[in-house]
Write a structure and sequence with these properties.
The structure holds two protein chains of two kinds. By secondary structure, chain A is mostly helical. Chain A contains four helices and two strands. The chains are: A mainly alpha, B alpha/beta.
């Protein structure tokens, strides 16, 4: 197995991404991500210190519109698509004090 | 009949939109069981739309440039009140509360939305094998993939389920399936078509575009869906390009470049099949015979596109797909706390390839790796933008194969992600640069399966690349691609 990414790193990244992986998925992803990262080595090894980054193909910045009220999507129609809603709000299980 | 012929006949009262629709619905009923181009056929809605078009004609009103033309729409495009799944379990049963801008524009142009087409889950893939609802099969040979991610939209046109369809292209997802299914497919300049209502994969790369049997139909469709949209802040503030008027202007005196690195030769990108490379050379010769001035052009960073793309696209995807958390829409798997509910919902709702890309993107953006991977990839993106801009100082358009190979078999490339990813090697550069590109069918390979030739141009050069595609289409129709 490649050392581009370790099994522990895959477990850590899955936690960051809020994904729970079965042991066989962790093994498969460790190997597959390593293959992709090996390919990425040609980018990683390049000297591009004096090249500015491009995050977007268009030079558009600060696109504004007139500050006027327009129609928006109906609240009830949006909430009707939620797994759970109550009193015009999305309902979720307890949030605070959950981190363990 | 082509889309333009249908629209003309419907407007002239020679046929009705309803009759055209029923003919297409019949073909779908006969054959979509084996092709699986559609996740959903919207017969009732389509009948209502077709009746409205016929009523307009009867009343002497113009129903629009796509009057009565059935169109298939990729299932990552929001349709109000109609399931929009991205071929993912995480959105199964979701009904969008709004239409994508392209859907509203198609409706205003008189088009009849016939159904939602299958795709690789969240548009991540090159074969539609990553769909949660099973793969689409290539209408030319059902043992082969149709390409992807817009495989359903490409197959729908190839199987004559609809004369035109809508796809989205993040790294080749319109052009590659167009090539593999033997139809025309174009990725417009980034910002020409509104992304409002297109479910995001990689926002700086995603672009909606047309599929069609003919270059003229693709042009007509792009004219309808293009143009500024105030609801997409990355929409170019300009009207839709005029294409049909200039489609027959030919290539006399046009400077055509062949990208050395994507020609299948030594020192270039590996894996471009000999039959595909030969067909591309034949297309270039045909353009030369039609009056184009041909030269070879080096775009050194083209070989780095794949690596940069498979860091940038997953990074953007990992961020975009964080919205699927079981809170506001889509699948929720109940758990004791919200954090556990988020994790349980995402783990149950996403398929393997989506998880893989979220993982890759999260890794490339994480502390300690951001500079080495994502940061560097953005700089390589600059090199690609610069190299193409330099090339366009000397040539008007560039020609490459669309896909390195013809359609492959199911399961051939699913074991190794890199084997699948290299399918995008010729198409990725224009997503990174934001420039437009079109794939046009040009003959078949040694296996008898379709080959597509890709024409690339600088930003907003759609009129030019479509005109070049029209010349190649004409050459192929006259037997010049054999």
């Amino acid at each position: 197995m490649s050392d581009r990414i370790t099994r522990d790193e895959v477990v850590h990244v899955a936690k960051l991404a809020r994904l729970e992986l079965a042991p066989h998925e962790i093994d498969a992803f460790t190997e597959q991500l390593a293959r992709v990262l090996e390919h990425a080595a040609d980018v990683e090894s390049l000297n591009v210190d004096d090249v500015p980054p491009t995050s977007h193909p268009l030079p558009l910045v600060n696109v504004f519109r007139e500050d006027v009220v327009t129609d928006s999507i109906d609240r009830d129609e949006v909430l009707a698509q939620a797994p759970a809603a109550e009193s015009h709000m999305f309902r979720v299980p307890p949030v605070l004090g959950e981190e363990r | 009949m082509s889309a333009l012929e249908i629209a003309a006949a419907v407007k002239a009262g020679e046929t009705s939109a309803v009759a055209v629709l029923e003919e297409h619905l019949e073909r779908i009923a006969e054959r979509d069981g084996e092709i699986h181009a559609f996740n959903l056929v919207t017969s009732d809605l389509a009948r209502a739309q077709a009746e409205a078009v016929d009523a307009a004609v009867a009343e002497g009103r113009d129903p629009g440039p796509l009057a009565g033309v059935p169109i298939a729409v990729k299932d990552n495009t929001c349709t109000r009140g109609i399931p929009t799944t991205c071929s993912s379990k995480i959105l199964e049963g979701w009904l969008p509360p709004y239409n994508a801008t392209v859907i509203d524009r198609l409706g205003a142009a008189g088009a009849v939305t016939i159904g939602k087409t299958n795709l690789d889950e969240f548009a991540m893939g090159s074969s539609t094998e990553n769909s949660a609802f099973g793969p689409t099969r290539n209408p030319h040979d059902i043992t082969k993939v149709p390409g992807g991610s817009s495989g359903g939209s490409a197959a729908a046109v190839a199987a004559d389920f609809a004369p035109i369809s809508i796809g989205s292209d993040t790294g080749g997802s319109i052009r590659q399936p167009a090539a593999l299914c033997g139809v025309v497919g174009a990725k417009p300049t980034y910002g020409v078509v509104s992304r409002y209502g297109l479910i995001a994969f990689a926002s700086s790369l995603d672009q909606i575009g047309p599929f069609a049997h003919t270059v003229a139909d693709a042009a007509a469709l792009l004219e309808v869906i293009g143009g500024h949209d105030p609801r997409d802040s990355t929409s170019i503030p300009a009207p839709s390009p005029s294409l049909l008027d200039v489609l027959d202007r030919g290539v006399e005196g046009l400077r055509v470049g062949v990208i050395t690195e994507l020609s299948g030769g030594p020192g270039g990108v590996e894996g471009i099949a000999a039959d595909v490379a030969a067909r591309t050379r034949q297309a270039v010769s045909a353009l030369e015979a039609a009056g184009a001035i041909v030269s070879e052009v080096s775009v050194p960073s083209a070989t780095l596109g794949l690596s940069a793309y498979y860091l940038i696209a997953p990074a953007e995807a990992s961020s975009n797909l964080s919205r699927y958390d079981g809170v506001r829409y889509g699948l929720r798997v109940d758990a004791a706390t919200t954090g556990e509910m988020n994790t349980a919902s995402r783990s149950a709702g996403f398929g393997d390839e989506v998880k893989r890309r979220i993982m890759l993107g999260t890794y490339a953006l994480s502390a300690g790796y951001y500079d080495a991977f994502y940061g560097k990839a953005l700089k390589v993106r600059t090199l690609i933008v610069r190299d193409f801009a330099a090339a366009y100082e000397n040539v008007d358009v560039l020609v490459t194969p669309t896909s390195p190979t013809t359609a492959f078999g199911f399961g051939d490339k699913t074991a190794d992600p890199m084997a699948m990813y290299v399918n995008d090697v010729c198409t990725i550069p224009s997503n990174l640069s934001g420039d437009p590109a079109i794939s046009v069918p040009f003959g078949v390979g040694d296996d008898g399966m379709p080959i597509g030739v890709q024409i690339l141009g600088p930003a907003q050069s759609e009129p030019t690349i479509f005109a070049v595609a029209a010349v190649l289409e004409d050459v192929a129709a006259k037997g010049g691609a054999k």
